[in-house]
Write a structure and sequence with these properties.
By secondary structure, this protein is of the alpha/beta class. Helices cover 47% and strands 18% of the residues. Strand 1 (59-62) and strand 2 (65-68) form a beta hairpin. The protein is globular and about 70 Å long.
């Protein structure tokens, strides 16, 4: 440990860390101090003490408004990592005290759920029947943020918009995408469908920032088309499928999920092959966070070959 880091550890207090995290979450110093049961002057004094401990200003002050500067954003990122580590520590200690192997919190993109995730969960349940497992589904960008915040122990997804070196990533599979419509959609029985023809209909897409959305944006750009404006944006596959079955809207969903809905007769996979590809998805954990026994066990279920 360097002299600087030793000094910083001695000077930092957890209440200061908590205050900065609460300011970020609740947007104002007044709201953050209220949540923490402090007066606003006391919170202001604590912020000054935090800046003194760090040896740098972390806020730009305009009147009563506080805005994180570049140094503040860096500090916030490390404090969020600290909170994530403490969340993991709390779960691990709870597992030790309760004697029931604790709780595993994981997040997964939808593509992994029909097969890979299900198989791993079944194997985990057989080996650790007393383990509680919480599962969140969503897009990779949202799940990684939850991982950073300590809300999740592990994510099955893609590394997007983050520093790759901050995560231990082990690939699982590639994911193909399908464009789908209702079984009675005007394009449902066409032997070949063009993107120009698809462009005439309203679309359902995941929100900006998600890998799937980025692929479709590139697809339109490559063919010199603009993304349709009248979008419905959702990461819910069930909501997407339900809307598609009752409208002429078009959607993009993972090929494995599309096959399940198509086999049930609910939707039709339209005959257009998306030329742009998604990056492989896999398991992600934070490198700077201790890996719990439950997380390590689950990783062996996901990657039996390793």
């Amino acid at each position: 440990m360097t002299n600087y880091s030793h000094t910083l550890l001695n000077r930092l207090r957890m209440r200061q860390v908590s205050l900065l995290l609460n300011i970020q979450e609740h947007r104002t110093l007044r709201a953050a101090s209220h949540v923490m049961g402090m007066t606003q002057p006391a919170a202001t004094k604590m912020l000054h003490e935090l800046e003194d401990a760090l040896g740098t200003k972390i806020f730009d002050r305009t009147g009563r408004t506080l805005t994180l500067n570049a140094a503040g954003k860096t500090v916030l990122g490390f404090f969020q990592g600290m909170r994530g580590s403490l969340e993991s520590l709390a779960r691990e200690l709870d597992a030790m005290h309760t004697g029931i192997h604790g709780t595993l919190s994981l997040g997964s993109i939808m593509a992994a759920s029909p097969a890979i995730l299900t198989d791993a969960l079944i194997a985990m349940r057989r080996s650790y029947p007393m383990l509680s497992i919480n599962i969140s589904t969503g897009t990779s960008d949202v799940l990684i943020e939850a991982l950073n915040q300590g809300e999740l122990d592990l994510v099955i997804g893609r590394i997007v918009s983050v520093k790759h070196e901050d995560y231990a990533f082990r690939p699982i599979a590639n994911e193909a995408l399908s464009i789908v419509g209702a079984v009675n959609h005007p394009l449902a029985n066409k032997s070949k469908v063009t993107l120009e023809a698809l462009h005439k209909y309203p679309w359902i897409l995941q929100g900006p920032g998600s890998p799937m959305r980025a692929v479709i944006e590139r697809e339109f750009l490559d063919q010199h088309l603009v993304l349709p404006e009248n979008l419905i944006e959702t990461s819910s596959i069930l909501t997407t499928a339900d809307i598609v079955t009752r409208t002429e809207m078009i959607a993009v969903i993972p090929e494995t999920v599309a096959a399940i809905f198509a086999d049930s007769g609910r939707i039709k996979v339209l005959r257009y092959r998306i030329k742009n590809k998604l990056e492989p998805y896999g398991s992600l954990i934070k490198r700077d966070r201790p890996c719990s026994l439950a997380t390590r066990a689950f990783l062996t279920m996901l990657h039996p070959e390793a």
